Protein: Nucleoside diphosphate kinase
Organism: Caldimicrobium thiodismutans
Amino acid sequence: MIERTLVMIKPDGVERNLIGKVISIFEEKGLKVIALKKVRLSKDQAKAFYIVHKERPFYEDLTNYMSSGPIVALVLEGENAIKRVREIMGATDPKEAAEGTIRKLFAIDKEKNTVHGSDSPESAAKEIPFFFSEYELIALS
Ligand code: CMP
C-alpha cells in the first residue's frame, strides 16, 4: 500500500549539517519527498507534537530538546512508507540500531537521535497535518 509518513530531522541533525545526507538515504531507498520545510518549534508546539508521551519521564527533556533549535519536517511517500522509514531509521537508541541505519550512522543518544518517523498510520494522520496543510501536500504530490 502506498503510504505517507511524517519525518523530522531533529536539532542535532540540522546542527551537524546532516540534512542532505539523511534525505539522500531516504531517497536512495525509493521514498519520495512530497513536502519539506525547516522550522523552529516553540516549547508549546513540541509539547503538542509529542502529547502522546506526556506521562513519560522524558517528556520534559524531549520537548526542551525539540524546541532548542531548527528542525526539518518532511512528508515521505512510498510503498509501506511508515514501516520502511522506521526500518531505515533504526532503533530509538543508537546503541541498539542495526548497521547502516540512520541512527546507527549519526545518532548521539536516545534523545539526540537525529530523526523521527511516524510510528503508525494513526500517528502519521495526526503528524502530517501538524506541519503541512492539505494544499501543500496536494500541490507537491
Ligand atoms: P521519536 O521517534 O522522536 O519519538 C519519541 C522520542 O522520545 C524518541 O524518538 C526519543 O528521541 C525520545 N525518547 C524515547 N525514549 C527516551 C528515553 N528513555 N530518554 C530520552 N528520550 C527518549
